Amino acid sequence: METKRIVFVGVGGQGNILASRLVGEACVAAGIPAVVSEIHGMAQRGGIVETDVVVGDATSPIVSSGEADGLIGFEPSETLRALNKCNENTVVITNVQPLPPFTVAIGQGSYPDIDEALDLIRARVRSLISLDGNELAEKAGNPLSLNMVMLGALVGSKVIPLDEGALKETIAKSTKQAFLESNLKAFDFGVSASRVG
């Protein structure tokens, strides 16, 4: 089986770790080998969180520079920061809704221009899918379902060998039932956005 390396990046509290774990669980349930690695930054304080998912015949869960087949960015500046993981064949899926760090909020830093950041990313990779994941999560009825939107976009992009049904089944088994309807709606919005993006 062909190996696919996916990097998830975001800010603490966006659901990045749950998203990568769900991909790993869905792969295993579908009989696809997968390993997941988590790199926690200062997640509790809105810091960087990165997780790697390697699907297929591989023994290391780490995605090195230039190895990513897919980069899933929950926050645009974090997507830009992780661009070194990409190569000319990488598919990048990024949320365009910024979550500026504390230093920007107190005036000690500046946030990159979103359009310029997207242009930089687009110039370095095979494909860029940009979407307002926060808006789609709100539309689904749960502002905390950004991670489900991003999972839907990943599956819709066909970067990994998982179909929608396999991941939806894992979401249904592994997330809180109280949020199931909104999670599945958010997932569907992500799938649709990836196909028009």
Global shape: globular
Can you tell me the CATH class? Alpha Beta
Q: Which residue ranges are poorly predicted, with pLDDT under 50 across at least 5 consecutive positions? A: none
Q: How are strands sequenced across the largest beta sheet?
A: 2-3-1-4-5-6
Mean pLDDT figure: 92
- CATH-derived topology: Pyruvate-ferredoxin Oxidoreductase, domain 3
Distance between the termini: 28 Å
The number of helical runs is 8
The biggest beta sheet reads:
6 strands, mixed
Order of helices and strands: EHEEEHEHHEHHHH
Fourth-tier CATH superfamily name: Pyruvate-ferredoxin oxidoreductase, PFOR, domain III
State the CATH architecture: 3-Layer(aba) Sandwich
User: What is the strand content?
Assistant: 15-25%
Rg result: 16 Å
Q: How helical, in percent, are the residues?
A: 40-55%
Total E-strand runs: 6
Number of domains: 1
* Structural class label: alpha/beta
How is the secondary structure organized here?
Elements: E1 4-11, H1 16-29, E2 34-40, E3 48-55, E4 70-73, H2 76-81, E5 91-95, H3 102-105, H4 114-124, E6 127-131, H5 133-139, H6 146-157, H7 164-174, H8 180-196
Parallel strand pairs: 1-4, 4-5, 5-6
Antiparallel strand pairs: 1-3, 2-3
Short description:
The protein has a 6-stranded mixed beta sheet with strand order 2-3-1-4-5-6, with helices on both faces.
